[in-house]
Design a protein that fits this description.
The protein is built from 25 helices and 21 strands. By secondary structure, it is α+β, with helices and mostly antiparallel strands. The chain folds into four domains: 190 residues, no CATH class; 177 residues, no CATH class; 245 residues, no CATH class; 157 residues, no CATH class. Strands 3, 4, 5, 6, 7, 8 and 9 form a seven-stranded mixed β-sheet that branches. Strands 13-14-19-16-18-17 form a six-stranded mixed β-barrel. The chain has a four-stranded antiparallel β-sheet with strand order 2-10-1-11, covered by helices on one side. It starts with a helix and ends with a helix. 47% of the residues are buried. It is a multi-pass membrane protein.
Length: 830
């Protein structure tokens, strides 16, 4: 049957254009997503900068530390403690060593990522004095060129606060950081922690001495200590989070539409297949022919899709960069290497596999076509649901309902993990698409009830055409269902979750004012002390730190907040599952339930500065609320924050005591923050800013997740309607022969396409209702009753574009066919 398949493709190639297009685009989507994900597997190759001239660097690094699991700037226990004096002495015995410190130091008008070093670090980063001299006294500094000059007095913001220094010298600018240099003694005061040790002893001997206490860096490996390494990793981690979600949605859309298009294409050829059965073809031969056609079309389309993926991936990467969803250096290199040929191979194999899987069930149905059907002129569908479609549709529906129910009841926190939850949302949409023929009849009757009562023939034709060709109606409505269903489910889920998080923040924050960083990475200690001196208020400075606890044979690391125990309950309403937050004292701790301990237990906490403390657990926080809270401990441990982070507070909550005048406090807060890189706002204003910022971020993420899939769905809508319209030329001939004018015929087909869109929208509404109902139940457990929010304007635009494309896809082939006469049209399929 291969020769028949080849002849069929040669002479009836127009019948396979739709399936070729669908499979090509599906393979393209899979290839593009694979190439984009492959491009995230490595960081850009950069030469070392900060330690460019250092022969050997002993760095306080932990090779097992995964920064993607923590907030930017957090450190492992080894990193936090830095190079110990004992290790420094042992390395120094092998040759000269230079300790290097890095800490927060920002000129009053300097960039937020400005950093401070001791002057000895300048020699390793190719810094050169452009004017003045090196700092000799503790109140002297060297600053980058372009600002104050030698002899000028300047204000430098540090974790402790602001201090006046005299500019002793100016360095030529470098492109990898903006640094302020201090004397070694002043740097040691500002940062007791030693980040690294530059060693001049033999590298192998240094490695033997260091052992597992730190990492010995040479060559290009020294670049991991550059600022760009951390920012590169942070940026690419965000991209890595987004792309798999996009790949799941894109893969689902491409696989479903390709399989659906293949099945529809085979169903269109029932009469042709019946003719083959009439001339003696066996069911097995028919199946072999259909599979052979799929192999030929699938192979060509998969290869074309892979090639198109190579062309499409680089501009998509540039678009992600322009939208701020990928770092500026992110690009897709389509030259050679595993990150190119592996995704392409997966895409081609998947595309061909989907083609075969999509056509396999259709080929079995084709083999069951009876020869007598060749004599049938009517297009009435006698059997719209096969046993396989029933099975898969019901399985998808059952799995979707059970999984969504399980998430809503037993594991509501999963809705806040999009990489896991978005995949679940696909199953109700898939189930409604598979079971569409069952409900098309009732839906069409409901939608077209006004048409049935109209006096004209056009309404009756539209209604009866959809009812008699249920399979065709369901197949052409599938892309619309997918387009609108994904839009409502994903956009609605994102908007509803944002609203729930906003509600959770509003329920948790009970403070009246919030002090925030202003052009700085955090609020320094001087601002906090000034605020605490204001009468009539309670303050909670959220000072991030890290605590470490022994978990079996390893050290578990947890992010924590050092706060004022007495003021905490008056500023924040924590999601306490056990115990009470009011019991927080200097010798107690509030932990997240991920710690696996209960109230009353004592945990031996390792602190970032090298100390230890036995702390009794007084409260356990729930992890199912979407809160980022991990642990709270007394601010008597605040000094450890400069080891674990920068020593800067993320924000300061201010709560008024009874009888305190808000306007007086507002003015006092303005004075307390003036010139210190902070600003005070009403808590309600801050909550609004946070809500808007988070909503913009999630909306931007959905632009990528949905954008590619929606574009493909739009193309699939046109493709499917064109395929259906090409199959309707005989119907067009009958309309023309019975007296219909070209305008009337076009209006009938336009109305049919709009009816298909309406059916798809209603099915999408049903699938989305299931998804959003589960989300609503889950969020109800997390943060309380949360109204379901759907961006109707965006969904309406997407639906309208889909409707326009559907009408165009249906009318363009009909408009071209009207150039022929009715008699010629009547013979198009003979």
């Amino acid at each position: 049957m291969l020769s028949i398949a080849l002849q069929t493709l040669r002479h009836r190639w127009t019948a396979f254009v739709g399936t070729f297009v669908a499979l090509t685009l599906g393979t393209t989507m899979i290839a593009v997503m694979g190439l984009e994900i492959g491009a995230t597997l490595g960081l850009p190759e950069r030469l070392p900068h900060r330690y460019a001239t250092a022969p050997v660097v002993v760095a306080a690094l932990d090779p097992e530390w995964d920064p993607a699991r923590h907030d930017p700037g957090s450190r492992s226990l080894i990193q936090a403690r830095g190079i110990s004096a004992d290790l420094a002495a042992r390395v120094d015995a092998l040759g000269r060593t230079v300790p290097v410190r890095s800490f927060y130091a920002q000129l009053a008008d300097g960039p937020a990522d400005q950093v401070g070093h001791g002057w000895s670090a300048a020699e390793f980063g190719a810094y050169a004095l452009r004017a003045g001299q090196a700092p000799r006294a503790d109140d002297e500094i060297v600053v980058p060129d372009g600002g104050p000059g030698p002899g000028q007095r300047v204000t430098v913001l540090t974790a402790d606060g602001a201090r006046e220094y005299t500019v002793a010298g100016v360095t030529a600018p470098v492109d990898f950081e903006s640094a302020v240099f201090f004397t070694e003694s002043e740097a040691a005061r500002l940062s007791p922690r030693v980040e690294a040790l530059v060693a001049y002893g033999p590298a192998e001997q240094v490695r033997r001495v260091v052992g597992g206490e730190a990492e010995v860096l040479t060559g290009d490996r020294r670049g991991v200590l550059d600022p760009s390494y951390g920012t590169d990793r942070e940026a690419i981690d965000n991209t890595r989070t987004l792309l798999p979600i996009t790949a799941v949605v894109a893969g689902f859309v491409s696989i479903f539409l390709v399989a659906s298009t293949f099945a529809f294409a085979v169903a269109q050829r029932r009469r042709e297949i019946a003719l083959l059965r009439t001339v003696g073809a066996t069911p097995r031969q028919v199946r072999r022919m259909v599979v052979a056609e799929a192999v030929l079309v699938g192979t060509a389309a998969a290869i074309a899709g892979g090639a198109l993926g190579l062309v499409t991936a680089p501009p998509l990467a540039r678009g992600m960069v322009e939208l701020g969803m990928a770092p500026p250096w992110f690009t897709v290199d389509v030259s050679t290497g595993p990150t190119v040929w592996v995704p392409l191979l997966i895409a081609v194999v998947t595309g061909l596999g989907v083609a075969l899987a999509g056509v396999w069930a259709a080929s079995r149905r084709a083999g069951e076509v009876r020869p007598i059907e060749a004599l049938r002129d009517a297009t009435v569908d006698l059997r719209t649901m096969t046993p396989g479609r029933w099975l898969y549709g019901l399985l998808a529906l059952a799995f979707g309902l059970v999984t969504i129910g399980w998430v809503a009841v037993a594991n509501p926190g999963m809705v806040l993990m999009p990489t896991r939850y978005i995949g679940i949302l696909m199953f109700p949409i898939l189930a409604f698409a598979l079971l569409a023929p069952v409900v098309v009849g009732p839906v069409v009757r409901l939608v077209t009830r006004p048409l049935a009562r109209s006096r004209g023939a056009a309404g009756m034709l539209v209604r009866e055409s959809a009812l008699t060709a249920v399979r065709r109606t369901a197949a052409t409505a599938a892309p619309v269902l997918l387009t609108v269903g994904l839009s409502v489910s994903l956009l609605g889920a994102a908007a509803t979750i944002d609203r729930a998080k906003d509600s959770g923040r509003r329920n948790q924050v009970t403070a009246d004012f919030v002090v925030l960083p202003a052009g700085t990475p955090g609020v320094n200690q001087a601002v906090t002390e000034r605020i605490r001196a204001i009468p009539g208020i309670d303050t909670v400075a959220v000072l991030p730190t890290m605590v470490y606890a022994r978990d079996d044979a390893r050290i578990a690391d947890y992010e924590a907040q050092a706060v004022d125990p007495a003021a905490l309950p008056r500023a924040l309403r924590l999601p306490v599952r056990q115990g009470s937050a009011t019991e927080l004292r200097d010798d107690t701790i509030i932990v997240n339930e991920d710690w696996g301990v209960d109230v009353g237990e004592t945990v031996e906490v390792l602190l970032a500065d090298g100390g230890t403390a036995p702390l009794r657990v007084v409260a356990v926080l729930s992890t199912t609320t979407g809160s980022n809270d991990v642990a709270y401990l007394s601010d008597r441990f605040a000094d450890t924050a400069r080891y674990a982070f920068t020593g800067l507070s993320r924000r300061v909550y201010v709560t008024l005591r009874p009888g305190t005048d808000p306007d007086t406090v507002r003015a006092a807060l303005g004075s307390a923050t003036a010139g210190l890189g902070a600003r005070a706002v009403d808590a309600e204003q801050w909550l609004g800013e946070e809500s808007s910022e988070n909503s913009e971020a999630s909306t931007l993420g959905m632009v990528l997740v949905l954008g590619i899939a929606i574009v493909f769905c739009f193309i699939a809508i046109v493709n499917t309607l064109v395929m259906a319209a090409a199959d309707r030329l005989r119907d067009l001939a009958i309309l023309r022969l019975t007296g219909a004018t070209p305008g009337q015929a076009l209006r009938v087909f336009a109305a049919e396409s709009l009816l298909v869109v309406g059916v798809g929208v209603l099915l999408a509404a049903g699938a989305s209702a299931v998804n959003l109902a589960g989300l609503w139940l889950a969020l109800g457990q997390l943060v309380g009753p949360t109204p379901v929010t759907v961006p109707l304007g965006t969904v309406a635009v997407i639906t309208a574009v889909g409707a326009v494309l559907a009408v165009l896809g249906a009318l363009l082939p009909i408009r071209l066919a009207l150039r022929s006469g009715p008699v010629e049209l009547a013979g198009v399929r003979e």
